[in-house]
Structures are given as structure tokens and as C-alpha cells.
Amino acid sequence: MFLLNIDKGVICSMKKLIVCICVIITIFASGCATKDYNSNYKSVKGYTEYVSNSKSGCKHMNSFGLKSNLTSKKAQEYYNDNVRKCGDYLITNYLDGICINRYVGSSKVVDIPDTLDNKKVIMLGEFLSNEKYNGENMSYGAFGGSGNCKITIPSTVKYISAGFFDYMYGVVDEISEKYMTNYSSVEINTDNPYYYSKDNIIYTKDKKTLLYLNNDVDVKTINVPDSVENFEPINPLIDSNYEISFGKNIKTIDACVELGEDGLTPVSSENSTKPSVTVKCYKNSVSYKWAKHHGLVYYFAD
Fold it and tell me: How many CA atoms lie within 13 A of 169 on its CB side?
């Protein structure tokens, strides 16, 4: 009887050991950090500042083109305490999901996962560089320095920072050039309930607002569909050499077409650099008035 009890104890211990081994294998297979970052992270110092940018985006889609959430010291402290490696990504907790802060893989064709560390990927953001500019750590887009990548954004993503597309102004130096972001292709998963993409252009799901133009792709004409009412790409039209053919139903245009005398800051003034953009528009339309106001070359479709 005593021997039987010992055997049961040994068996029980072996089962526990097997379970522990399986957990360890799972952790290493996933490539995620072992520390439990998923509990009580919302009470961590700096978290409130880190997620305060969640509605700072475009006028007609405030979760897109978000301001950087790495500008304050408290937010940076949260980032440094929370960031960890999971597979090919550096991630942090953001609201009720995961923010991808940096891609550290080598593939040039990336299907961004919809789940990391057992949580939905809801945010595409920026990472904080250890290299300093004027004594300050700078933030760069998640794919900064990865070269020309073809990416597909998953159905779970709602929040996307402007920095993810590398449209940050005011710094041009060797470090920022090192972390430049270039996308050979940007696509949205068709099941995404917030965004729609076609021909390297991102729209809101209802196709009423144009949010992003991929200037890294060599195109001659960008056709803005009649469904689009709001033209507000987060990327500037600087250094662009193509035609924008506007549809009939444009109501608002909010697009950066000029840089100041410093060659860095987007402005609207006479002392500025203008792009080589030609505008195709309709007479007396919003797009015609916009093109004329900015001194762009235009011609009428009607």
C-alpha cells in the first residue's frame, strides 16, 4: 500500500513536470517574453499617457494617423517597462489589445498577425530608439529601417499612428534616414471592419474618406472614386509627381501640399515648396478651389 502511494506521488510529480515542460515549450515556440504583462497593466505608471493618443487621428477617422504616444516622459517610461519581444515583433499592451511597436524580422513580405501574446493586435505604432537626437530619444515607425516591405494589415487593427507610415516632420539626419519607412505595397485584410484598401490607397470602410496614399509606389494617376467625400491623406503630397483625378462628390480636402522654407515643416504660405501634382477636377468644385488656392496645376474633367 505504501509503495502504491509512492507510485501515485511519482506519477503526479511526473504529470506536473510534463505540464511545466509543455508550458515552457509553448512560450519558446511563440517567441514571447515569459513575464506576465497581461495583468494590471492599465494601472502601471505612464499607461494613461501612453494611450491618450487613441482619438488624435484624422477628422473623419480619429483612430487613423494618430499622434505619437511616445512624446512624454511618462509614456516613454511605460513603453520601456512594458515592451517585449514576441516572435518578429516588439509589442506593448494598448487599451484592450496589443500594439506592434517594431518589426524585427527579415522578410520583405509581411502578413501582420491578428494575435500576439494571446491578445488581439489592435494598434500599429512606433518604437523608441536608443539613439539620441539633440539629447532626446526619437520614435520611429514600426517598420522603420526594414527596407521596402509588402505588408498586409489584419482585420483586428483599428488604431494606426502617423509614425507607422513615417510621416514625422522636423528631423532629417543620419539616424532618421536610417529608420526611414518604405512600403512597396500596403493592403488591408478584407475582413477589417474599419478600413478598406485598393491600389495602395487606404479608405474608411464605407469608402467615403481617403486616408492614405502610398507615395513609395510609382504611379502616374491617382483616381479618387466618386464615393469619396473627404480627401485627407495623412502623408504629404510633397515630392509627388502624379495626377490626382478627383471624383464628383468631394466635400472636404485636408492634405499637406507645401513645406516651409526649412524644407521640413508642412505649411500653407507663399514661401513654400510645392509638389509637381496635377489636379483633374470639376468646375466650381471643392477640388478646383483647393487646387487654385495652393497654386497647383489643374484642368477640368467637364
Answer: 15
Measured between alpha carbons, how far is 86 from 64 in angstroms, rounded to an integer? 24
How many CB atoms are located within 10 Å of the residue 242 CB?
18
- Residue-wise pLDDT tens digits, 272-285: 456 678 999 999 99
Q: How far apart are CA 230 and CA 236, in angstroms?
A: 15
Q: Are 79 and 45 in contact (CB under 8 A)?
A: no
Separation of alpha carbons 259 and 237, rounded Å: 10
Please tell me the distance from the alpha carbon of residue 179 to that of residue 256, in angstroms, as a whole number.
22
If you compute the radius of gyration of the chain from its CA atoms, what whole number of angstroms results?
24
CA neighbours closer than 13 Å in the CB half-sphere of residue 247: 17
Which H or E element spans position 22? helix 2-30
What is the length of the chain?
A: 302
pLDDT band at 5; cut points 50, 70, 90:
low
Answer with the residue of higher pLDDT: 71 or 171. Answer: 71
The four Cα atoms 262, 255, 103, 92 give a dihedral, to 10 degrees, of 100
Residue for grid cell 539616424: 175
C-alpha cell at 119: 491578445
CA 155 from centroid of its chain's CA atoms: 14
* Sign of the CA dihedral running 194, 101, 59, 299: negative
Bridge partner list, 153 = 188
> Which pairing describes strands 243-245 and 221-223: parallel, antiparallel, or unpaired?
parallel
Q: Indicate the residue type of 68.
A: S
Write out the three cell numbers for 139.
520614435
Please tell me the distance from the alpha carbon of residue 274 to that of residue 294, in angstroms, as a whole number.
8
231-251 pLDDT tens trace: 999 887 766 678 999 999 999
